[in-house]
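Figure 6 in text form: structure in, sequence out.
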């Protein structure tokens, strides 16, 4: 567990360092140097430009299409996240029993509680950190999107709908929509999972604010990426959970028939 947490923390730190050490004032092109620029920012910039050439040179449409493609690529991981979240939810009664059994706050008891919880996870083939993987993978993509926009003049200076892609939304519409769709997506997922965890309920309101505040200042293209991604995830949540629910309904009669 600690090794996995350390690995995840290292990935986050490495992403921040790689992205943060890049000069945003330098345009991205074939002459750009550095691992981050060559392997993340430049390919994404070129891909957005290529897509734009297919759709009337509209970089706004290109960002929407690129976002959908990214979400489709991440779809298997999101399905795994749903599976892991459901498994964790099913284990909650047993976890609460362990917490009640090892309720003492001394170090030895808490260590025993952690060991018993990890044993429970291993017996049920549940990885408590699996739900974090899609979010972690999205972090480098989000940083790369930001730099691809700001370091590609053609994208940064083009207008789409009522906003300029490289500037903040002048009417604050996108930040509000980003917060609203984030709230809706989280609400739907919690409802489908039947999650009554107070911490998750708190994050339902905190997370949209965490998204909205930067969106007021960041390029509109980044807020557009988040809004489109949220809308995609809302439909994705319905589809994944509908399939899971249908699968469970199909299995119940079969199990009943075997008992007879």
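Output sequence:
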């Amino acid at each position: 567990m600690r090794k996995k947490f350390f690995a995840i923390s290292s990935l986050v730190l490495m992403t921040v360092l790689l992205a943060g050490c890049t000069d945003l004032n330098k345009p991205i092109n074939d002459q750009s140097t550095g691992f981050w620029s060559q392997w993340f920012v430049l390919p994404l910039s070129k891909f957005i430009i290529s897509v734009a050439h297919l759709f009337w040179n509209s970089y706004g449409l290109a960002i929407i299409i690129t976002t959908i493609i990214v979400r489709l690529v991440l779809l298997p991981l999101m399905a795994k996240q749903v599976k892991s979240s459901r498994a964790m939810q099913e284990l909650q009664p047993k976890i609460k029993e362990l917490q009640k059994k090892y309720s003492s706050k001394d170090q030895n008891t808490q260590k025993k509680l952690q060991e018993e919880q990890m044993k429970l996870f291993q017996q049920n083939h549940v990885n408590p950190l699996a739900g974090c993987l899609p979010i972690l993978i999205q972090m480098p993509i989000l940083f790369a999107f930001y730099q691809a926009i700001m370091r590609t003049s053609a994208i940064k200076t083009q207008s789409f709908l009522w906003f300029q892609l490289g500037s903040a939304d002048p009417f604050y519409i996108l930040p509000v929509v980003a917060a609203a769709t984030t709230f809706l997506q989280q609400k739907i997922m919690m409802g489908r999972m039947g999650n009554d965890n107070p911490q998750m309920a708190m994050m339902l309101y905190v997370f949209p604010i965490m998204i909205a505040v930067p969106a007021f200042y960041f390029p509109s293209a980044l807020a557009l990426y988040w809004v489109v991604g949220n809308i995609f995830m809302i439909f994705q949540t319905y589809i994944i959970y509908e399939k899971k629910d249908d699968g469970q309904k199909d299995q119940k009669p079969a199990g009943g028939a075997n008992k007879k």
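Caption detail: The longest helix spans residues 59-101.
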